[in-house]
Amino acid sequence: MCVTDGSAAGGVLPPEATEKFNTWGGWPAMRGLSRWYEVEVICKGDADETGYFINISEIDQAVREQTLPYLQDMISGPGDPASAPIGEVVRGMINGLQPLLQEAVAEVRLHLTPMLSMGIESENMDKVTIRHEYEFSAAHRLHCDSLSDEANREVFGKCNNPEGHGHNYVVQVAVAMPIDPMGDVAHVEELDELVDTVVIKPFDHKHLNKDTEEFAALNPTVENITKMVWEKLTGKVDDLGSMPGAELVEVKVWETQKTSCVYRGE
Ligand SMILES: Nc1nc2c(c(=O)[nH]1)N=C([C@H](O)[C@H](O)COP(=O)(O)OP(=O)(O)OP(=O)(O)O)CN2
Ligand SMILES: [Zn+2]
């Protein structure tokens, strides 16, 4: 679900407009310069005899009635939105939805950009999970030294091409951290610097099999890359200055738009 300043602020939507068009693209369509947010509401429950555990229109309605006006108030309030205590804002979103959706609401994620979100789970409202995406481009060859050349060709097909082939890998790192007494959370820039140092720079524009120690003897499949990213980050995230108590909770790597792998540790 998308919120734009226009629709939430009112005034852009003509008063006589009762019908909605293109709710996928956002209604009413944005005019002028936009701010972009996305609200993701994750619900959990057991389906009853109807096959539903909740009608999605109830979720839509709750978000439209409660979350979007709340978010609009936060954005247009007296403070600078860039200094908003983001932990407190997302906690306010989930608090507002709970009376309407009861125990169905499991998590609310506020996407601040298409690559950065802040999520709070209803079972642990003292923590925010930051998800941030990064990118590196690399070549690789899928090849297993323990298999014969013929078996490698059979298992990996075109991906066993001796000269390799390339991908633009997208890496999403999820870090859970406590919300501080001011309602704020750590600076994402510190996480960015860590990921850049230990993951992106070592892998970007490299041939993973030939140019990196990590994959000299390890087949650089998306599974192994995901686990390697986890191993490189785990234990370092909690050392970041502005992130006491931070914990790596998930790494997701997309090799192509259609192929990804998630690792959450042992
Ligand atoms: N379990 C895994 N299977 C595959 C992996 C992997 O890492 N783990 N990797 C590959 C290749 O790296 C390959 O480059 C992926 O591209 P492709 O086969 O072209 O797959 P796409 O989904 O992008 O496109 P198709 O149109 O379906 O070919 C393969 N398998
Ligand atoms: Zn590949």
UniProtKB/TrEMBL annotation:
* Reactions that this protein is recorded to catalyse: 7,8-dihydroneopterin 3'-triphosphate + H2O = 6-carboxy-5,6,7,8-tetrahydropterin + triphosphate + acetaldehyde + 2 H(+)
Q: Which UniProt keywords apply?
A: Lyase, Metal-binding, Zinc
UniProt keyword annotation of Lyase present: yes
User: Gene3D superfamilies annotated for this entry?
Assistant: 6-pyruvoyl tetrahydropterin synthase/QueD
The enzyme class is: lyase
Q: Name one GO biological process term.
A: tetrahydrobiopterin biosynthetic process
InterPro entries on file = 6-PTP_synth/QueD (IPR007115), 6-PTP_synth/QueD_sf (IPR038418), PTPS_Cys_AS (IPR022470)
Q: Name one GO molecular function term.
A: metal ion binding
Its UniProt pathway annotation is: Purine metabolism; 7-cyano-7-deazaguanine biosynthesis
Q: Does the keyword ATP-binding apply?
A: no
Q: Which domain of life is it from?
A: Bacteria
Cofactor names from the entry are: Zn(2+)
What are the EC numbers?
4.1.2.50
Query: Member of which family?
Result: Belongs to the PTPS family. QueD subfamily.
What protein is this chain from?
Answer: 6-carboxy-5,6,7,8-tetrahydropterin synthase
